[in-house]
Amino acid sequence: MDLGLKGRGVIVAASSQGIGFATAEAFAREGAQVAMCARTEKTLMEAADKVRSQTGAEVYAEALDVTDASAVQKFTEQVAKRFGRIDVCVANAGGPPAKNFLSILPDEWRRAVDLNLMSTVYLAKAVIPYMQRHRWGRIITITSISVKQPIADLVLSNSVRAAVVGLVKSLSNEFGKDGILVNNVAPGYTATERLQELAQIRALAAGSGQQQVYDAWASETPVKRLGDPKEIADVIVWLASERASYVTGQTILADGGIYRGL
Ligand code: NAD
Q1: How far apart are CA 215 and CA 225, in angstroms?
Q2: What are the pLDDT digits (tens) for 128-185?
Q3: How far does the centroid of ligand 1 lie from the alpha carbon of residue 133, in Å?
Q4: I need a labelling partner for 136 at 20 to 30 A (CA). Which of 94, 125, 214, 218 fits?
Q5: All structural domains of the chain
Q6: Does the CB atom of residue 52 touch ligand 1 within 6 A?
Q7: CA nearest 255: which of 223, 219, 216?
Q8: From the CB of 65, is ligand 1 less than 6 Å away?
């Protein structure tokens, strides 16, 4: 199936590892030009080299924090200068810490809003004018199944990511006329470094081993295993493609069926 992504200018934010990295690699395999960012220069450059050497794609990488509005704006301008266009933006970031409500400090709430909501706002604001020029664009946010089914001890994620879904729907309404489609991908338990952190916290709280935590997540999931980051990346790439040209304002779960609602 031709996804129509060859030559597209694609930003994948927070892409030195995990779902972001797998997504950058998947776009590169489709022949897109890919821009990657993350906070730590060394790991980001290694990740970008890996994508280049495995796919032969043109990759631009810049170390930045997605909670810094002016850094995001400058990055976007650089990407547009190098690629001549920005067609796709995957608004990814790390996840907020796993904590229960009474232990969360006001500053931690603000950091979670900055990390997961404001980073998406900054990226969308920066890329939309470039997409409007060509009357074609795709913005894809990465949230979590927590937007459908809150997860114990992830109060920050449960709360802030719901605002991202509201933003996605609002942007899809406002910019559909410009050919810009805006969707959200909500992963379930996916084998990345982030999940390792969560497994450690859960294991400590339960006095069990990490493997038991992983096994429990897998057995709760109808397909009886964790997701591979590449499986989430495939959904993101499809949403960005010409093959998803009438899909906007949606949350697509890539969760092995763990969300139990209709
Ligand atoms: P990860 O922790 O493995 O990778 C996160 C990436 O974001 C890294 O490249 C990191 O360097 C980068 N990053 C973090 N904070 C940043 C910042 N302020 N500025 C720039 N880059 C930053 O995470 P992951 O598992 O790939 O998850 C990606 C997103 O999906 C997260 O929001 C996570 O909470 C969410 N999610 C993950 C799972 C899962 O099971 N892995 C499930 C649901 C939702």
Answers
A1: 8
A2: 999 999 999 999 999 999 999 999 889 999 999 999 999 999 999 999 999 999 999 9
A3: 30
A4: 94
A5: 9-190+227-254 (3.40.50.720), 191-224 (no CATH)
A6: no
A7: 223
A8: yes
